[in-house]
Amino acid sequence: MHLVLGQVAGSGGCGGGCSADTTPRVIKLHKVTSGMWGEGSTGNGYTTIGGTGGGFSANTGDATWNAYYHSSPTWSNAGGDYSSTVSASTTVSQTVNTSYSWSHSNMVSDVQAWLNSPSTNYGWILVNDDESSQKTFRAFYSKEAEANSVGTGPILEIDYTP
Question: Out of the domains of life, which is the source (predicted)?
């Protein structure tokens, strides 16, 4: 899987009073175990990734750190419901517009399981090794980036040999 880094903690939105996080961050990929989460419309008006690092106030239909729908039942685990098994990991620096890749045999197992049982395909979640400190995030361009001509969306590359 390939994702393009679009924003780094401290790289914008602070009026020049801060600097980008220069510590390389290990970002792990985990298989999501629940198909319940909101994909609300908060922030949909933004056509760039810059300036969104502070987040938005949650509204009806939005997933939050604590709940899969704003003001609704909570996740079993804060941040989302996902397997504790790491599917893959990679180290991400602070260089924006750089492509990063995740690849591991566990990802192959995940995809095969989804092929065998499509109803269990809830995708993967990216989890930063440091989810407790402030200003450590990495934001990657989503599928909407290409539609808005602001970046390259995610790419899942499968090398199949019969």
Answer: Bacteria
